[in-house]
């Protein structure tokens, strides 16, 4: 019980989770604005605009720095962790998405791929995995905004 009370009173954790939720909701809203239809599956998807991973780690890192000092070990750990997450979103996960797209084209758009699918069951590979630079930047701005609001209204 004590652990639950501590978790629910951890302002920095709650702000980071809110940052993630806001970014995920923005994915749905941005998609609606561009396509004029709702796709609520984007709320639980990785990839897309904005980067919820970037938003979450940005909020976490800024709030740890604001509360414990930008020279604290907690900020240093969060900063390095955030850098790894953001670089991963921009490079590794984006490359995986490109590979998934190419494999889907091979298995679903070519004669040999169609013949292969007749003999074995091949599922579609998930293509929306990584992020472009603007998607990561917007995620950073969302995370920064949530952190600033938290500092103004809640950080003690």
What can you see in these coordinates?
This protein has 156 residues and is mainly α. 74% of the residues lie in helices and 0% in strands. The chain is built from 7 helices and no strands. The chain has helices at residues 2-8, 11-35, 52-68, 73-90, 92-109, 111-119, 133-153. Helix 2 packs antiparallel against helix 3 (52-68), helix 3 (52-68) packs antiparallel against helix 4 and helix 3 runs parallel beside helix 7 (133-153). It is elongated.
Mean pLDDT: 85
Q: Determine the strand fraction and express it as a percent band.
A: under 5%
Q: Between the first and last Cα atoms, what is the distance in angstroms?
A: 24 Å
Helix content: over 70%
SS element count, helices: 7
What characteristic shape results from the CA principal axes?
elongated
Strand segment tally: 0
SSE arrangement, N to C: HHHHHHH
Major beta sheet summary: none
Q: Could you tell me the radius of gyration in angstroms? A: 19 Å
Low-confidence stretches: none
Structural class: mainly alpha
Q: What keywords describe this structure?
A:
156 residues; mainly alpha; 7 helices
Compact description:
The protein has helices at 2-8, 11-35, 52-68, 73-90, 92-109, 111-119, 133-153. The protein is mostly helical and 156 residues long. The longest helix is centred in the first third of the chain and has 25 residues, at 11-35.
Helix-strand blueprint:
Elements: H1 2-8, H2 11-35, H3 52-68, H4 73-90, H5 92-109, H6 111-119, H7 133-153
